[in-house]
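Worked example 2:
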Amino acid sequence: MKNLNLPVMIGILFSVIGLVTLFLVGQALTAAIWLSFGNGLLLTSLRFTRVNEFGEAEQQPVPKARVYAGIFLIVLAGILLLLQIIQDLQQPAA
């Protein structure tokens, strides 16, 4: 439980919000924004520990591929949010 820092907990919260939005409301674009940002936070900040050859617990570094994938998901969330804003502005007022 030591690897649950603030960005990881926020990522889990955003991912849960995205799943609830998808299942209950059915808005796929809004759910994709929440899920993309939450999973991006999880990928970039979740660290694992391992036991080294001396029997001590040490934190493993985050692999570069995970960091790049997480950054891509966070940027994708921003792009999807802009798309959602543009889509909302183009709809006529009721």
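Residues 6-48+60-90 form one domain. The chain has a mean pLDDT of 90.
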